[in-house]
């Protein structure tokens, strides 16, 4: 009602109890040649060529960086096909036929601890860059650019908050592989020269706290702490998380490194561990299928697998006659897709299928719930009114560009007005 | 399977405008029940008349404002006018209707009730664009309309149990009776429990407080406006009490608080979100404005009672408070400071303005 809303039903409890199904050998795997951050890309393999696990099959090119693509199975390159990627766009995908032998590429070999200790900052960054690591929390921002910073870093944060409802990838990672997360954090601290590390988790996850603290007993020589932050949404947003975990208030639009902070998702840290220790790129991900329109399942699956295969394995859709809303990612900020013909990429974490529920928009009654709930303290209702009359100056005065599109304004509105959509339109209009 | 297009977020909170309106109606139950207990059929008839007029006129005006479809049959055309008619068009006007009925005295002629309700719903609400677009509080506008247009009808219409018809507790104070002796006519507990003459909904502070508690628990009303206006009112009235009746300042404050329409207005009218600002500091300021204006009207104005006037006057300033250039949802130190300074200035104005023994 007329109050700040922070808690949203997260639906994670039931999902956590589901077993994780391992589905690692799809017949064909697909690698998008381009992505949302990299509008160009090229492949360096021919049809009929044989590739091994970890072999570079192409490069995606972004505005200021390049990102190698790695094969996650061994087998024959078959050709190209169009599929949907994580951002909901149709992209060209390279197809590799899985021979199920999983032969490793000759470059893949474990590094010994002595070798790792001898690595310099530049070498760390080179490893991370060559492994094509990106922010696995969803941003897909290249990890090496974060590490490359010239600023002095005081603290590296492992963000394990995962505040979006229905997502449990980070939770299960910290539950099952806390050591890999911590080692990844140690490597990130070494690479950035930070003396201190922090793992931020939700306050209600007592079991994770115990698990991490137990695992941390092996790492007493490093200054790493578990910090509990609030259970609310959007606590996983890095600025909100840093404010609660460290007490540092960073203005929007500023680089974290200026304030001596680096923030990585826990999955990203695990991938750093794999890249440094095992010389492996990201091969697998936890993928959750949830929502009331589908049989819910957790999968451990290989990058490049088609989501439609997983849907079939999970048992398909429920109530086929009802129209459905399909979402990649979380229900607050995820991407809407119209087909399940999606390729698993590094940042694909979940598919949500919900029965469509049409909400009728009522007139705004100025209750101000959206204003009270906004985490960046702008005024969604005023922005909506300014956008309706196409008032560019007012939109700029109201700082529409601060909006992080977390979706809380639409979520809380008692009149069911889709304010977040007005925010997006307002941003586009103001920057025109 | 049919996949449909939507944009994030895909989940919504389980709240609705309808529920907020119904909450206000539920919160009004104790007040209405007390009015019916006190005034019997007089109250029931006036509430029903007000409900029928407001809901009916809103429905008619709503239909006239919509564009009909081009159809041969008139019944189809009529139906198409009401495609967007929702439960909110009924609940919202029902809230206004009940509040309006609670603002009038029990013996007010029925046609005056009809006139006020019609003015409120047509002029103050539908002409501005209906639900969510009105600038002025609907019930207050209707009440002020009849107060100004049909002034004579209010004389002698305030009735209490075992009492001859006359003015309200506030008019008593106004008509020259000095304060300590006014307490002999109406004690503080009479004022609190509603054993006084007055408009139907205003008399029982106890019933109003029950409604306020419900509204606040359900979070269907913003405590900021309530708190800000009540605090401002009490601080200023206490200062006046200190000046005029040094020994009984507290009694004077409570008398002013419970007599008249302040409590009812603070709980049910000022909290109307449609006519409130949309930011935290804005709402504090709005409350301060209403509270201070009520004090100024009661002390220096031509009317013994001034809540509806104060509210309508403050309503006009809402767009100014919400102006994008300075409206912000952060409570900054500068705002707190200016709030306190405003309060001090107002305090000085009333303290030196009321006269009396210095």
Describe the structure.
The complex is a heterodimer of chains A (432) and B (358). Chain A has 432 residues and is α/β, with parallel strands linked by helices. Chain A is built from 15 helices and 17 strands. In chain A, a hairpin with a 5-residue loop joins strand 7 (75-84) and strand 8. In chain A, helix 3 (121-130) packs across helix 6 and helix 12 crosses helix 15 (419-430). The longest helix of chain A is centred in the middle third of the chain and has 15 residues, at 178-192. The radius of gyration of chain A is 22 Å and the shape is globular. Chain B has one domain (18-70, 87-353): Ammonium transporter fold (Orthogonal Bundle). The termini of chain B are far apart. The interface between A and B is large, with 62 and 46 residues. Strand 15 (323-328) of chain A pairs parallel with strand 1 (2-3) of chain B.
CATH class of chain B: Mainly Alpha
**Main sheet of chain A, how many strands, which sense, barrel?**
6 strands, mixed
User: CATH topology of chain B, what is it called?
Assistant: Ammonium transporter fold
Low-confidence stretches of chain B: 160-166
Q: What's the number of extended β-strand segments of chain A?
A: 17
Structural class computed from helices and strand pairing of chain B: mainly alpha
Tally of individual helices of chain B: 16
If interface size is counted as residues with C-beta under 8 Å from the partner's C-beta, which chains form the largest one? A-B, 62 and 46 residues
Tell how many strands the DSSP assignment of chain B holds: 1
Large-scale geometry of chain B: globular
Overall helicity of chain A: 25-40%
What is the number of helices of chain A? 15
| Percent range for β-strand residues of chain A | 15-25%
């Amino acid at each position: 009602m007329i109050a700040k809303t922070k808690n949203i039903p997260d639906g994670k409890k039931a999902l956590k109890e589901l077993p994780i199904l391992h589905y690692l050998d799809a017949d064909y795997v697909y690698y998008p040649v381009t992505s949302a951050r990299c509008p160009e890309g090229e492949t360096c393999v021919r049809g009929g060529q044989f590739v091994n696990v970890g072999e570079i099959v192409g490069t995606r090119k972004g505005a200021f960086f390049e990102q190698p693509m790695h094969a996650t199975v061994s087998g024959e390159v078959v050709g190209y096909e169009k599929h949907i990627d994580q951002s909901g766009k149709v992209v060209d995908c390279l197809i590799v036929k899985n021979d199920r032998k999983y032969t490793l590429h000759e470059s893949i070999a474990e590094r010994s601890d002595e070798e790792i200790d001898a690595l310099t900052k530049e070498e760390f960054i080179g490893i991370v860059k060559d492994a094509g690591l990106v922010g696995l929390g969803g941003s897909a921002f290249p990890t090496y650019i974060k590490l490359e910073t010239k600023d002095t870093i005081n603290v590296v944060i492992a963000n394990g908050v995962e505040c979006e409802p229905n997502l449990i990838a980070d939770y299960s990672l910290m539950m099952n592989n806390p050591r890999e997360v911590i080692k990844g954090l140690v490597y990130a601290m070494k690479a950035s020269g930070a003396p201190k590390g922090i793992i931020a988790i939700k306050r209600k996850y007592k079991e994770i706290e115990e698990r991490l603290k137990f695992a941390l007993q092996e790492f007493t020589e490093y200054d790493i702490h578990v910090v509990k932050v609030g259970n609310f949404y959007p606590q996983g947003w890095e600025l909100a998380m840093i404010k609660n975990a460290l007490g540092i208030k960073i203005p929007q639009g500023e680089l974290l490194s200026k304030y001596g902070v680096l923030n990585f998702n826990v999955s990203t840290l695990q991938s750093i561990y794999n890249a440094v220790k095992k010389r492996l790129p990201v091969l697998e991900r936890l993928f959750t299928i949830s929502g009331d329109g589908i049989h819910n399942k957790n999968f451990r699956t290989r990058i490049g697998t088609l989501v439609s295969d997983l849907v079939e394995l999970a048992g398909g859709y429920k109530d086929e006659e009802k129209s459905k809303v399909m979402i990649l990612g979380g229900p607050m900020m995820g991407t809407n897709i119209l087909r399940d013909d999606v390729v698993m990429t590094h940042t694909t974490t979940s598919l949500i299928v919900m029965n469509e529920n049409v909400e009728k928009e009522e007139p705004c009654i100025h209750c101000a719930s959206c204003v009270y709930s906004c985490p960046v303290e702008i005024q969604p209702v005023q922005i909506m009114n300014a956008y309706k009359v196409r008032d560019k100056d007012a939109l700029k005065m109201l700082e529409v560009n601060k909006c992080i599109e977390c979706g809380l304004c639409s979520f809380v509105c008692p009149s069911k007005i889709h304010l977040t959509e007005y925010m997006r339109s307002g941003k586009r209009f103001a920057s025109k | 399977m049919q996949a449909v297009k939507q944009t994030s977020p895909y989940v919504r909170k389980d709240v609705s405008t309808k529920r907020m309106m119904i909450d206000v109606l539920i919160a009004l139950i104790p007040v209405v029940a007390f009015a019916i207990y006190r005034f019997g059929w007089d109250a029931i008839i006036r509430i029903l008349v007000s409900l029928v007029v407001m809901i009916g006129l809103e429905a008619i005006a709503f239909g006239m404002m919509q564009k009909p479809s081009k159809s041969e049959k008139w019944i189809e055309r009529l139906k198409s006018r009401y495609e967007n008619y929702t439960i909110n068009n009924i609940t919202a006007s029902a809230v206004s209707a009940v509040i309006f009925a609670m603002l009038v005295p029990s013996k007010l002629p029925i046609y005056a009730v009809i006139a006020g309700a019609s003015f409120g719903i047509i002029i103050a609400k539908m002409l501005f664009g209906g639900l969510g677009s009105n600038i002025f509080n609907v019930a207050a506008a209707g009440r002020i309309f009849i107060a100004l247009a049909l002034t004579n009808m209010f004389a002698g219409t305030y009735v209490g149990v075992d009492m001859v018809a006359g003015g309200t507790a506030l008019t008593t104070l106004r008509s020259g009776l000095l304060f300590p002796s006014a307490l002999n006519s109406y004690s503080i507990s009479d004022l609190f429990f509603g054993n006084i003459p007055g408009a139907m909904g205003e008399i029982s502070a106890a019933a109003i407080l029950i409604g306020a508690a419900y509204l606040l628990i359900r979070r269907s009303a913003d405590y900021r406006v309530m708190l800000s206006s009540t605090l401002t009112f009490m601080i200023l009235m206490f200062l006046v009490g200190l000046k005029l009746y040094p020994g009984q300042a507290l009694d004077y404050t409570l008398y002013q608080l419970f007599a008249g329409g302040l409590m009812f207005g603070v709980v049910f009218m000022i909290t109307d979100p449609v006519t409130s600002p949309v930011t935290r500091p804005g709402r504090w300021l709005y409350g301060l404005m209403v509270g201070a204006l009520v004090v100024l009207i009661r002390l220096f104005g031509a009317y013994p009672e001034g809540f509806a006037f104060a509210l309508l006057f403050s309503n006009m300033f809402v767009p100014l408070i919400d102006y994008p250039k300075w409206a912000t949802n952060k409570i900054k130190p500068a705002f707190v400071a200016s709030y306190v300074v405003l309060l001090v200035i107002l305090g000085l104005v009333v303290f030196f303005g009321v006269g009396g023994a210095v």
